[in-house]
Structure formats: C-alpha cells, structure tokens
Design a protein that fits this description.
- The relative contact order is 0.08.
- This protein starts with a helix and ends with a strand.
- The chain is elongated and about 70 Å long.
- A hairpin with a 5-residue loop joins strand 2 and strand 3.
- Strands 1, 2, 3, 4, 5, 6, 7, 8, 9, 10, 11, 12 and 13 form a 13-stranded mixed sheet that branches. A 3-stranded mixed sheet has the order 15-18-17, covered by helices on one side.
- By secondary structure, the protein is an alpha+beta fold.
- Helix 3 runs antiparallel to helix 4.
- The chain folds into 3 domains: about 90 residues, no CATH class; about 130 residues, Jelly Rolls; about 70 residues, 3-Layer(bab) Sandwich (Phage tail protein beta-alpha-beta fold), CATH 3.55.50.
- About 10% of the residues have low confidence.
- This is FecR protein domain-containing protein.
- It holds the Pfam family FecR.
- GO terms for molecular function: sigma factor antagonist activity.
C-alpha cells in the first residue's frame, strides 16, 4: 500500500474512493492489518517526535522540556488507542453512502445508465453496486461478474471499477471486465481509451492497458495479451461466441446464459474443442442440437429439476 495514501488516511484527508481502497487493503489479510497499525505508529512518531532545543543552564527549561516530552508520549498512547475507533468510524462512514444494487439472474442480461450518464451492459449472474449519486471528486462502482462499460469522459472525476481482485481507473473509455469471483477468472479487455489496473493485494502491481489488449490475472500476476478476436465480447448483443473452446467450458457458459444445470456424464467429450456462435434467444435445445452436428453426444432433460445430462 502506498505510504502517502496511508498517511493521508490517518490525517483524514482522503476521498471516499481512496478510503475504500484502504479499507479493502486492510481487510484483505491479517498481514495488511498489522502493516496498517505498524505504519500508524510510525506516523504518530513522525508527527510527535519534534524535540525542542534544551538549555542546560536553565532548570526551568529542562523541567519544561521534560513535561513536553511526557506530553508527547501521552498523546502517542492516546492516539494509538483512538486509532481503532477512528478506523471503525471512518469505515462506517464509507458504508453509509447510499448505494444502488442491480443483480442479473441466470439467462438474462441488462443495460444500466449510471448517475453520470455512463452506460453499463451487465451479463448473466452479475451484480453491480454504485452510489445513487456520484460526488464532485470521483465515480466508482463495485462489480462481481461481467460487464461492458462505455464511460462518459470527465477528467476531473476518475471512474473506478472495483472487483474482488483489482481496481480499474479510467477517464473515458470502452472496456470489458470479466470478474466472476466463483470462477477466479479476472480479465479486463480495452476497446478504446486508456485504463490503469491496480492489484488489490499488492498496489505496487499497476499496469496501463492499451487499446486492443487484454489483461489477465494469473497466479497473482498480471499478464497482457493482444486481442485478435472480439466475438467473445458480443454477449451484450445476445450472441454467445466460442473460439476453440473446450466442451466443459462451453457447458459452463450455457449454464450461465440459459439458467440450467448441466451434468457431463460422457467423458469422451471432455477433450473436444469447438468454434462457433449461438443466439441466446434460440434457446438451449437449439444450441445443443448445433453442437451435436459437430460432437458425438446425446442429452436428456429433467425439466422439473432444470438439469441437462450429457450422455
């Protein structure tokens, strides 16, 4: 965590978004929490340890100096005890910001206009939270799932997307974020503009993403690759596109887009890959029949339990 940001936090001179960053960092691990309090002690010492000149010829000055030093120690002790209360109160203030929450169920997608006029397309099984009104300094949203953003330009108010793994800062741009926590897949793809991506667990890991590039999080490190195929991002148009994708991963996407559970009993299909497109509105049966033209399998449906068995 950046020390300047921490020290501004201790002084109470941070924005809501910066406070959210500190809060998320502290809560990420016990090690971060210990570092938070350790830095606070150093901060207190820097603020209080400013000794006054001492004149040895004057007993009054020496006594006065000792009183000041004892006063500093007492203040440091008081500040240490107040730190926990200060942090909890600050966190409560952040949590009190009025937030809107939108959750998209399986098999659905939706478009949302944010308070600043930015547009967001939300994929199935996605949740987004954002303030009911952005303040004059910043704009931020909290995302779990996949979303495509078309952000209104405003240089004086950066736009921040918080995910479980990292934060994305933009001024005005178009980009896709894939951040489903349950899959541990975190990807950001930039179509236009520029974004800065910062890893939550290690704020020193920051990457400026260029257009037509994708940033993935692999084993705690960022990996950037050039985007050659934009079909996978056409989900907001109702298209489900695959490029040399494995059969199991295709079934996982079908579960998300069609709101069903799929059980693969045929082990022969596990190593087969497929390239193609489906319209979500055509339904699961049509999609499976198209797959059957290329892959040898049968399927049975349990309509009562909403389960499909691949045989």
């Amino acid at each position: 965590m950046d020390k300047d940001l921490l020290y501004n936090f201790y002084k109470g001179k941070v924005s809501i978004e910066e406070g959210q960053r500190v809060k998320a960092w502290v809560e990420a691990s016990d090690e971060n929490e210990r570092a938070f309090y350790r830095e606070r002690k150093i901060f207190d010492a820097l603020m209080l340890n400013n000794p006054l000149p001492v004149k040895k010829t004057s007993f009054f000055n020496f006594t006065h100096y000792k009183k000041i030093e004892w006063l500093k120690i007492a203040m440091a002790v008081i500040l240490t005890f107040l730190l926990s209360y200060f942090y909890q109160e600050y966190k409560a203030g952040l949590d009190s910001v009025a937030m809107s929450t939108i959750s998209v169920p399986e098999g659905q997608r939706t478009n949302v206009t944010l308070p600043d006029g930015s547009n967001v397309w939300l994929n199935a099984c996605t949740t987004i939270q954002y303030p009911t009104s952005f303040n004059s300094r910043e704009r931020f949203v909290i995302l779990k799932g996949e979303a495509y953003f078309d952000v209104k330009k405003n240089k004086s108010r950066p736009f921040i997307v918080h995910t479980d793994a990292y934060s994305i800062e933009v001024l005005g741009t178009k980009f896709n974020v894939d951040a489903y926590p349950e899959t541990e897949k975190f990807e950001t793809t930039l179509m236009h503009g520029s974004v800065k991506v910062t890893l939550k667990a290690d704020s020193s890991q920051t990457v400026i993403l260029k257009p037509d590039h994708k940033l993935s999080l692999e084993k705690g490190r960022f990996v950037m690759t050039k985007v050659e195929d934009y079909n996978p991002y056409r989900w907001k148009e109702g298209l489900i596109c695959f490029s040399d994708e494995s059969f199991p991963n295709i079934m996982k996407d079908f579960e998300k887009y069609y709101g069903v559970k799929i059980v693969i009993e045929n082990k022969n299909v596990l190593q087969i890959n497929f390239t193609g497109k489906f319209r979500q509105t055509d339904g699961i049966d049509y999609a499976l029949r198209i797959l059957q033209k290329n892959i040898d399998f049968q399927y049975e449906k349990d309509n009562e339990k909403q389960i499909i068995y691949i045989k």
